[in-house]
Amino acid sequence: MAKSRLWRSLSAGHRSLIVKLDGLDEYDARRPMTQTGTNLLGLVKHVATWESRYLGFVMGRPFQGPPVPVWDDESARGADLVVGPNESRADVLALVESVSASSRQTIDALPLDAAGLVPWWDPSEVTLFDVLVHLVRETERHAGHADIIREQIDGRIGPMGGVRVSDDREIWAERRAEVERAARTAG
Question: What is the DSSP letter of 160?
Fold first, then answer.
């Protein structure tokens, strides 16, 4: 019961992230939208890469899919957030599918109290349950980042990106002005 609930939550997080790519061209899908270069397709790749590490390497079941940078390769630090010009959206989505299938196999094969080791955590000893809770939390956090980035790109908001800010421009302008007034009054 708990495993299936955690898996459903993780899968929902994947869908929340991936849907933010709908309707975007290649440029907008990978356009850097923050000072640190955060972009939608890079977030999707990042989440898949780290999930492959946590439910693969950490749980003693190395990921057998497309190659991903190893966690302790200093020269590749941050590479999981960059989608190179020779990587397509289809490549990243294929990575997500491969990681998802591998993750499901790990979850099905191991009990929630199965031991794992996260060398970059202190303490480093974990259980599958710990890893799943962490992945659900991190995936949803990055889905929240994706919500904001998508709004910056074309004004689409909502869990499935079905609402466009421009659809209710006056309402949103009033809301923004209200928030601005409150911030100026408080500050």
Answer: T
